[in-house]
Design brief:
Largest sheet: 8 strands, mixed
Oligomer: single chain
Strand content: 15-25%
Number of domains: 3
Distance between the termini: 27 Å
């Protein structure tokens, strides 16, 4: 059994050394609501949470440690079992309906839309973005139509995605939640789902589906959007139609022009906590998804669990999802190997 540790230990072991993934798991599960992401200096984003100073363990001597148990950066770091992880099926897929802002094939949106409409999930915890500022925010989405309007990947990041899990479970009482996030988010959710700790069990029981997104790195919102794009290159956030990473950061603006920025020039935009991550393919998800490995207009789906396969099969049966077996995993394996080597 894990020795009880409080946010003080979390701060010393994860926040202070710059290892925080900023996933928001600790914020979501704190029973006192005492952890939060505050304001940072202008041009910067908060690197880790803060505390109000109240803690059930430290203040009242009540056993807790929920924040420490949920954090994906605590404990011993084990080597990855494999680059892309175990799967029960690998396919290329795309939405069978228009998705205006889809990143590749819109397959993740199709799976979630189908599940919301059928009632197999009642909420999606994910990241959306303000279309004017591109500033990301964590959100609970319960409407299929709203979900479709918010499709697309967010490469600029600081938002504690899982903070919205508290709203979904504690405030809205949702019981069948899908979580969509990058590997660090998936790792935190895995810890929550697998835990038998009383304070984490209500969250774990409420999560029905976890979709992980392929991730080589994410970029700090303030440093990327306000710095590298706006100040250095004169690209206003409201003019950005699409961001994509294909060996470089490709920025498509309103007139169709594509500005390609070498990743080496964006090294300072990568948060310190991101640089320690070795997981490219979200190995602990039910389904992992990304554009790499599939034909143009399709999404690669690594289906890892029977539950994940069930959601894909139901989306296909409902007519929301089209499937192809035209998948080549070598490019994804190369990216996964590069990320695994970087984090050692």
């Amino acid at each position: 059994m894990m020795a009880e540790k409080s946010y003080i230990d979390l701060k010393r072991e994860v926040w202070d050394p710059g290892l925080c993934a900023r996933c928001g798991a600790c914020v979501a599960v704190c029973p006192a609501g005492a952890l939060f992401f505050g304001r940072a200096a202008e041009g910067e984003s908060p690197l880790s949470p803060e505390s109000t100073g109240y803690c059930k363990m430290e203040t009242d001597g009540v056993p807790c440690g929920a924040c420490y148990r949920a954090c994906p950066r605590t404990g011993e770091r084990l080597p990855l079992p494999s680059l892309l992880g175990d799967t029960v099926e690998t396919v290329a897929a795309r939405a069978a309906f228009p998705v205006a802002h889809k990143q590749s094939g819109g397959a993740v949106t199709a799976i979630l839309k189908s599940a919301l409409e059928e009632g197999t999930i009642d909420a999606v915890v994910t990241v959306t973005a303000d279309p004017w500022t591109l500033k990301p925010r964590s959100e609970v989405i319960t409407d299929a139509g709203v979900l479709v309007t918010h499709a697309g990947s967010r490469y600029n990041w600081w938002v504690p995605l899982l903070a919205a899990l508290n709203e979904a479970v504690v405030v809205r009482k949702c019981q069948n939640i899908a979580v969509v996030g990058v590997p660090c988010v998936v790792q935190a959710v895995y810890r929550i789902r697998e835990s038998d700790f009383d304070l984490l069990r209500p969250f774990g029981r409420s999560i029905r589906l976890v979709i992980g997104l392929f991730c080589t790195e994410s970029f700090d919102y303030a440093r990327l959007v306000e710095g590298a794009l706006r100040r250095e290159r004169g690209i206003e956030p409201w003019a950005v139609r699409r961001l994509d990473v294909k060996g470089a950061l490709e920025v498509t603006v309103d007139d169709g022009t594509v500005v390609s920025i070498p990743l080496a020039e964006l090294e300072s935009c990568i948060p310190s906590g991101c640089k320690t991550c070795t997981d490219f393919a979200a190995l602990d998800a039910d389904i992992s998804a990304g554009a790499v490995g599939s034909p143009e207009g399709f999404t690669t789906l690594l289906i890892r669990t029977p539950a994940g396969k069930g959601f894909v099969d139901r989306a296909r049966a409902s007519g929301a999802l089209e499937i192809s077996d035209e998948v080549a995993l070598a490019p994804a394996e190369r990216l996964a190997a590069r990320k695994a080597a970087r984090g050692r």
